[in-house]
Amino acid sequence: MFLENTVNHKEQFGWIEVICGSMFSGKTEELIRRLKRAQFAKQKVEIFKPMVDTRYDEDMVVSHDSNEIRSTPVPAAANIRILGDTCDVVGIDEAQFFDNEIVTVCNDLANKGVRVVVAGLDMDFKGNPFGPMPALMATAEYVTKVHAICTRTGNLAHYSFRTANDDNLVFLGETGEYEPLSRAAFYKAMLKEKVRKLPVDIEEVTPNTRKSNG
């Protein structure tokens, strides 16, 4: 649960909030909600996203539910340090696609008094920690893990299973390319993928088949 730290009003400080989870879990939705709340409070807010993310719009951060907020696409984390230095609040979407410098950038901004709100996938399509997200979660004051619903079991899902035939780590997609799965469903799906990819030697199989048939 996210709690705003307002105990000591004399201390000038910032902090880091991380919103993480699988595909279709509402990460961007929650990011937009928090940032719009800050805008309503008349705070200076800037939102950034990786330049590679152009799925819905080149300049907007857009959730799967079509909520949106204007953002600045940047090619690298270093750009955020420069552009967000004078802000009250900095929002960052799809943080897993940034280089590892994003961790230092977020901490530098927080140390200067900026509230940094970050959203991103905590695991890649293979179920491994994704890019800089583990380090961001470790250094953040607040971590919120949101969940999708498993399309196969109806239970809570926190894995993003890739249904598209592509092994690249960075692969932007939607419901046609990814499926949110629970732990059990993800394990079964990955096991089926391993079996499907097992090499079969036709030369070894054919003679045995002929011999058994007489």
Structure description:
The structure is a single chain. The protein has six helices and twelve strands. It is an alpha/beta fold and 214 residues long. The protein has a domain at 15-146: P-loop containing nucleotide triphosphate hydrolases (Rossmann fold). The strands form four sheets. The chain has a six-stranded parallel β-sheet, sandwiched between helices. A two-stranded antiparallel sheet has the order 3-4. 35% of the residues are buried.
Short description:
The chain is an alpha/beta fold.
List keywords for this structure.
214 residues, alpha/beta, Rossmann fold, two-stranded antiparallel ribbon, 6 helices, elongated
Q: What's the architecture of the domain at 15-146 in CATH terms?
A: 3-Layer(aba) Sandwich
Which consecutive residue ranges, at least 5 long each, have pLDDT under 50? Answer: none
Specify the CATH class of the domain at 15-146: Alpha Beta
Shape: elongated
Radius of gyration: 21 Å
User: What percent of residues adopt helix (DSSP H or I)?
Assistant: 25-40%
Report the structural category: alpha/beta
CATH superfamily label of the domain at 15-146: P-loop containing nucleotide triphosphate hydrolases
Number of DSSP strand runs: 12
The number of helical runs is 6
List the helices and strands and how they pair.
Blueprint: E1 15-21, H1 27-40, E2 45-50, E3 60-62, E4 68-70, E5 72-74, H2 78-83, E6 89-92, H3 101-111, E7 115-121, H4 133-139, E8 142-146, E9 148-149, E10 156-157, E11 159-162, E12 178-181, H5 183-196, H6 202-212
Parallel strand pairs: 1-7, 1-8, 2-5, 2-6, 6-7
Antiparallel strand pairs: 3-4, 9-10, 11-12
